[in-house]
Fold this sequence. Notes:
Number of domains: 1
Radius of gyration: 18 Å
Shape: elongated
CATH architecture: Up-down Bundle
Distance between the termini: 15 Å
Helix content: over 70%
Structural class: mainly alpha
Strand content: under 5%
CATH topology: Ferritin
CATH superfamily: Ferritin, core subunit, four-helix bundle
Number of helices: 7
Oligomer: single chain
Amino acid sequence: MSKPPITLAMVYECFASALPGEGRAEDVLRSLDVDDYQDWVMYPEFARWAEQAGQPQFAGLFRKVGGQDRLHPIWLRELYRRLGETERGDEDQRAVEAIMAIRARGDELIALNPEGLVEKALLVAVGVEQRDYLETYPRYRDRALREGNTDAAAVYQRAIDAACEHAEWFRQALEELRARLSRSALA
C-alpha cells in the first residue's frame, strides 16, 4: 500500500518561524532564540523522527549538528555580554507547550509516512543551515564590520563556517536517503 506524501508545508506546520528584527537588539534576541530553537527543539525532534523511521544514521546526524550548533548561542551570548546587549528572557512554560505540540504533530506525520518525513526533515535542515550561512549570520557579520567590530565579525564568521559545513552534511544525507528510497521503489 502506498503511503501518503509528506509535504514541506506539513513539516513547517510543526514548527513556528521567527521573524527577523529591525535593529541590533532584535537581532540579538532572534539569533539566540533561533539557535536555541534549532539546537534544543528542531534537530532533536528530527532525530526522533529518523529513529522512529528506522534511519539511525540520520538521527545521529541531526544530533551531531544540534550538538555542534549549541556552541552558536554560547559564542553569541559571550559576544553580546561584551557588547552590553540584552539576552533573551526565560520563557520555559511557553517552550514546554510548544515542544509538546510539535511532538504531537510529528507523531501524526511519522504514522503517515516515516521515510517521507525524514526526507523532508533533511530538506528543511539544509534550508535552515543555508539561511544561516547565506543570510542571517552574514548580515550580522557585515553590520559588525561596518561598525568596526572585528571581534563580533569573527564570531559571526565562525557561525557561517559551521552552518556551511552542516548544510553540506545534510545535503549528502538527503542524497543518500533519496538514493536508498529510489532503490527500494525499484525493488
